């Protein structure tokens, strides 16, 4: 009978898999466990390495996801795929110490907590494995903001290493955003009643191999968390993020249009077309960095193909944008209002088509 499932979201972690399984085997002696590697179709063959281990070790399972990415959604899928009563979530890069797992499981079994978090900032813990002091300071700031969002007083609510009952994750799944990296923050915010939480100190180690998947865009997840908590039931979170980027794109659009039409005296139709193209390029870049961060296109080939696909799929909206704005301007509508009307008409096309044919294809 299974005691514990360890969910390990992976992306390009090939060299970390076998050593991690060995560490789990040593740490969990006497327990019935399984490790579920939820791999986002890693280019380095991470899923194949895990499958090779699974041929001789039935405790190893692999979910290779095609067209779906992101740590949060990987955790949800892993929790829904196991029969174990308890799930632990941890990174596969060796920054999280598997030796803590039995202690964390004991706290759950004893009824001391409903959620156990391995904390870098609890007494006895350490964040020495963070890339640099600047990242550690950023993590501490993120924790303060997270406490405001969840209302839970924790030393490390942004931890990626935690344990709880699998049934609780499945029950909360319909309320979870499933976007981004901070699934713990999502669970804390989505729980209808405050969870009984315990922390254990974590010595956060250095990554064993590969490159970190986190970057400065992680701060944007606080906006996502706030929106999802208070307005996510009204308008889908992804669309709200896309619209936020689009709002910034409006500023780019009007800036280019003003320069070309007012400063240089270009024809309005030409200026509107140039402004539309500039705004589309800006929106693609920022959406790729923020809105679709968990599905981000990487490498020159993917980015160039994605940018071309974004422009192509938005071309119908762009044509309608320019045509409507030009017609309204010729009909005597003030140029700024005419441009805004064109932008609104193209917005729905931009989101619907790009979500399906640009980022969705990857």
Could you please describe the fold and organization of this structure?
With 362 residues, this protein is an alpha/beta fold. Helix content is 54%, strand content 10%. The chain has a seven-stranded mixed β-sheet with strand order 3-2-1-4-6-5-7, sandwiched between helices. The chain is elongated, with a radius of gyration of 23 Å.
Give a quick rundown of the structure.
54% of the residues lie in helices and 10% in strands.
Query: What's the helix count?
Result: 13
Spell the H/E element sequence.
EHEHEHEHEHEHHEHHHHHH
Strand order within the widest beta sheet: 3-2-1-4-6-5-7
Largest sheet: 7 strands, mixed
Radius of gyration from CA coordinates: 23 Å
Would you tell me the overall average pLDDT? 83
Show unreliable segments: none
- Oligomerization category of the chains in this entry: single chain
Structural class: alpha/beta
What's the CATH architecture of the largest domain?
Answer: Alpha-Beta Complex
- So what's the CATH class of the largest domain? Alpha Beta
Distance between the termini: 37 Å
């Amino acid at each position: 009978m299974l005691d514990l499932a360890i969910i390990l979201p992976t992306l390009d972690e090939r060299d970390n898999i076998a050593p991690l399984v060995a560490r789990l085997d040593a740490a969990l002696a006497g327990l019935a466990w399984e490790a579920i590697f939820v791999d986002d179709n890693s280019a380095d063959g991470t899923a194949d390495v895990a499958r090779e281990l699974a041929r001789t070790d039935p405790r190893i399972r692999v979910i290779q996801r095609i067209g779906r990415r992101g740590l949060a959604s990987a955790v949800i899928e892993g929790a829904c795929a196991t029969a174990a009563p308890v799930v632990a979530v941890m990174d596969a890069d060796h920054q999280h110490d598997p030796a803590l797992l039995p202690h964390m499981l004991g706290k759950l079994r004893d009824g001391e907590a409903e959620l156990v978090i391995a904390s870098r900032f609890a007494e006895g813990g350490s964040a020495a494995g963070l890339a640099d002091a600047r990242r550690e300071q950023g993590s501490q700031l993120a924790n303060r903001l997270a406490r405001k969002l969840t209302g839970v007083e924790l030393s490390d609510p942004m931890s990626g290493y935690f344990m709880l009952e699998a049934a609780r994750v499945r029950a909360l799944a319909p309320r979870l955003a499933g976007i981004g990296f901070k699934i713990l923050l999502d669970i804390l915010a989505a729980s209808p009643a405050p969870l009984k939480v315990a922390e254990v100190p974590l010595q956060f180690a250095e990554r064993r191999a590969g490159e970190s998947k986190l970057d400065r865009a992680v701060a944007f997840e606080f906006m996502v968390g706030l929106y999802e908590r208070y307005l996510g039931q009204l308008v889908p979170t992804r669309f709200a993020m896309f619209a936020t980027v689009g709002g910034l794109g409006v500023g780019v659009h009007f800036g280019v249009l003003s320069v070309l039409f007012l400063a240089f005296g270009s024809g309005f139709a030409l200026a509107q077309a140039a402004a539309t193209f500039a705004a589309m390029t800006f929106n693609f870049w920022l959406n790729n960095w923020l809105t679709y961060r968990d599905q981000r296109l990487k490498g020159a080939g993917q980015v160039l193909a994605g940018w071309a696909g974004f422009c192509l799929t938005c071309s119908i909206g762009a044509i309608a944008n320019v045509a409507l704005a030009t017609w309204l301007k010729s009909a005597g509508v003030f140029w700024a209002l005419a441009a805004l009307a064109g932008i609104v008409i193209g917005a729905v096309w931009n989101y619907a088509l790009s979500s399906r044919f640009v980022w969705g294809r990857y």
